[in-house]
Specification:
single chain; alpha/beta; Rossmann fold; about 20% helix
């Protein structure tokens, strides 16, 4: 497992970290975001989407479960928040697996129910430190 960690002290540093993440990910387009409520998962997805040339406003999918964005290059970005789903059946009912294709970027918050089904992905763990800075750890996970 390849892993890299970074400490971020200001939100303005997220643009560069998004570039670093996309380079780290290589061809992988499935990302799992882990972190406590308020850690900055959606804020980081916003920075990544901007790096992918998405000009739409990125919002939390907490209530919608999935938000879809399109980049200037006609690439789809799907941002999931599975927190409110309680079973794999509920995940299948929303057509979760239909969003996956080679051209789509997939970002999943609260992914515990689907982790064993994903195969290869990049895990992004965001930890809030005592001084309110954030530690981001990127890990390549493969089946």
């Amino acid at each position: 497992m390849t892993q890299q960690s970074y400490k971020i002290e200001a939100e303005t540093e997220l643009k560069q970290l998004a570039k670093t993440l996309l380079s780290f990910a290589g061809n992988c387009k499935i990302f799992i975001l882990e972190g406590n409520l308020g850690a900055g998962k959606t804020t980081f997805v916003k920075a990544i989407a901007q790096e992918l040339n998405c000009t739409e406003a990125i919002t939390s999918p907490t209530y919608s479960i999935v938000n879809e964005y399109i980049t200037k290059n006609d690439t789809n970005i799907f941002h999931f928040d599975l927190y409110r789903l309680n079973s794999i059946e509920e995940i299948e009912d929303i057509g979760f697996w239909e969003y996956f294709s080679d051209n789509n970027y997939i970002f999943i918050e609260w992914a515990d129910l689907v982790l064993n089904e994903l195969g290869s992905y990049v895990r992004i763990n965001i930890r809030t430190l005592a001084d309110e800075s954030r530690e981001f750890t990127f890990s390549h996970i493969s089946e």
